[in-house]
Design brief:
By secondary structure, the chain is of the alpha+beta class. The chain has two domains: 32-73, GTP cyclohydrolase I, N-terminal domain (GTP Cyclohydrolase I, Chain A, domain 1); 86-217, GTP Cyclohydrolase I, domain 2, CATH 3.30.1130. Helices cover 40% and strands 21% of the residues. It has helices spanning 6-18, 35-48, 61-73, 133-144, 150-165, 179-182, 201-204, 206-217; strands at 87-89, 98-109, 115-124, 129-131, 147-148, 170-178, 193-198. The strands form two sheets. It has a five-stranded mixed sheet, with helices on both faces. β2 (98-109) and β3 (115-124) form a beta hairpin. It is globular.
Length: 218
Amino acid sequence: MYAKDPELGMVIHKLLLDKKVESPVFFDKLNSNNFTLIQQKVAELLEVIGLDLKDASVADTPKRTTKFFINELFYGLDYNNFPKMTTNPNDYGYHRGVFSEAISFNSTCEHHFVAISGHAYLAYIPKDRIIGLSKLNRIVDFFAKRPQVQERVTRQIFFALQKILGTEDVAVGIKAKHHCIAIRGVRHDDTKNSTVEFGGQFASSEQLQTVMYNMMNN
């Protein structure tokens, strides 16, 4: 299990509230303290739509679903789960771009509660600190693991990275498939959607932006 930093999580939570990009949820609801209540509500929903919870195949579905919600699908609703962001001094004076390509993620559309799946593309230009590269994957996964909108999660990752890295020079791109488009409504299975956010040198440099777009379109 990865190391967590709840204190940093609350700092990021307050930052996102100030930036008006925090998710519209009550962050104290989905946790193990409410396991029994959540399990009860899941059971009620399944019964309302017609499942027979006395059947052996689905008898434990409310419990399994609740564990899945708390520990996996929506663990990003609890800032106590915020990943520890290990950074190191930039002793070697590296001040060019660091690019992290095709970070895979799975999220949930908050409009229809179906899957969003895709890749995130992150970049930053270090100042005084260098981040452990796997932490970039962790922060994408944390913000993906809650009901989401692609435009919002792009900006959440962006502002969180600027704060953690201590630099404005951050870029975030996301390309994702929304299964609410693939399996309902227009039912277009091949549609993908792209969002970007640029800060600092990335906002002013067409060359750096082109690098990001080329990564996303490979």
